[in-house]
Design a protein that fits this description.
Layout (H helix, E strand, L loop, with lengths): L13 E6 L5 E3 L5 E3 L4 E4 L4 H10 L2 E8 L2 E10 H15 L2 H33 L6 H15 L15 H16 L14 H19 L12 H8 L1
Parallel strand pairs: 1-5
Antiparallel strand pairs: 1-2, 2-3, 4-6, 5-6
Helix pairs in contact: 1-2, 3-4, 3-5, 4-5, 5-6
Pfam families: DUF2293
InterPro entries: DUF2293 (IPR018744)
Length: 235
């Protein structure tokens, strides 16, 4: 049973656990399986504001499950009284005109930031493409298409990460767009062998870079036979 029945036991302020098959038992990082304290309730994920308030109110146990390389929240265990109090206070605050005004201002700010990022990203794509003047219209159209696909919030694309510089994000987004638009990648049957898909992507990236190089020179080529020209016409 957790916590142990000792008079000098101090509940940790915040811990992270993995779930188990028993809803009221969790697994600690060191492998121990612990029982959720009596009087605690599970706050489901989905309301970041409420979760922050519950965590700030006192001790809590966060439950997170790793699926592949991603970590998914399964909720937060905390004293039920803390959850009820935080929820009531937050609902009262959210019912005020001031809160609605704050939400509207936040939406407008995020919209402006998103619009500015789309422009910055499209310009970064243009710099990476570096097409010759003869193919500049193609570059401009491609920059818009790539940015439109890659920059939406929540898209999960490389354009949304801040772990690499903008120029590298633009390059990766172009190669990813070309993989889907100028190759048969989406229809390929790739062996379920470790590293096979990565190798296919590497080979297709080399082909895509060669196609891009054609447009960095003024040497004419037949658009009908060019996968990039065909894709830009189709889209």
């Amino acid at each position: 049973m957790w916590p142990p029945p000792t008079s000098d036991f101090t509940m940790p302020e915040s811990l992270t656990f993995a779930p188990t098959s028993d809803p009221r038992r969790v697994r600690a990082p060191d492998g121990r399986v612990l029982t959720v304290p009596d009087g605690w309730a599970l706050l489901p994920p989905g309301d970041a504001g409420l979760t922050r308030r519950v965590k700030a109110a006192g001790p809590s146990w966060t439950v997170a499950e790793k699926v592949g390389r991603k970590l998914f929240s399964r909720g937060v265990w905390a004293p039920e009284a803390h959850i009820l109090h935080a929820r009531a206070a937050l609902e009262a605050e959210r019912a005020t005109p001031a809160y609605e005004k704050k939400l509207a201002a936040g939406r407008e700010r995020r919209a402006r930031e998103q619009e500015a990022y789309e422009v910055d990203f499209a310009n970064a794509v243009l710099r990476f493409l570096a097409f010759s003047p003869a193919w500049l219209p193609h570059a401009k159209r491609m920059a818009v298409l790539v940015a439109t696909h890659a920059t939406p919030v929540g898209s999960g694309t490389v354009a949304r990460t801040e772990r690499i510089p903008l120029e590298r994000r633009a390059e990766a987004a172009v190669i990813a767009w070309m993989r889907h638009q100028t190759t048969r990648y989406d229809d390929m049957r790739i062996a379920r062998v470790k590293g096979a898909r990565r190798e296919v992507r590497r080979e297709l990236a080399d082909i895509s870079r060669a196609v891009l190089d054609l447009h960095r020179r003024d040497t004419p080529h037949g658009p009908a036979a060019c996968p990039l020209c065909t894709a830009l016409t189709r889209t």
